[in-house]
Write a structure and sequence with these properties.
By secondary structure, the chain is mostly beta strands. It contains no helices and 8 strands. The protein has a single domain, classed as Beta Barrel (OB fold (Dihydrolipoamide Acetyltransferase, E2P)). It has strands spanning 3-6, 11-16, 23-24, 29-35, 38-43, 48-53, 60-61, 66-70. The protein has a 4-stranded antiparallel beta sheet with strand order 1-8-6-3, with no helix packed on it. Strands 5-4-2-7 form a 4-stranded antiparallel beta sheet, with no helix packed on it. It starts with a strand and ends with a strand.
Length: 71
């Protein structure tokens, strides 16, 4: 079953720690957003494989946007 990681706020993608095909563990930091000069880390909600990445470093993103998909 696919698990999307959806953005809770808008900002700029500062650092992407994974690529498509990577295995991640629950709680592993997968990317960091810069929001109003603050770093906001996002973690994998569950273990799985990164099947899709919809963001890239430097992208300006919006609240509610799907960033990654795990399966």
């Amino acid at each position: 079953m696919a698990t999307p990681i959806t953005l809770e706020t808008g900002g700029t993608v500062w650092k992407l720690h994974v690529k498509a095909g990577d295995e991640v563990t629950a709680g592993q930091e997968v990317f960091i957003l810069e929001v109003m000069k603050m770093e906001v880390p996002y973690e994998a909600p569950s273990a799985g494989r990164v099947t899709a990445i919809h963001i890239a470093e430097g992208d300006v993103v919006a609240e509610g946007q799907t960033a990654l998909v795990l399966s």
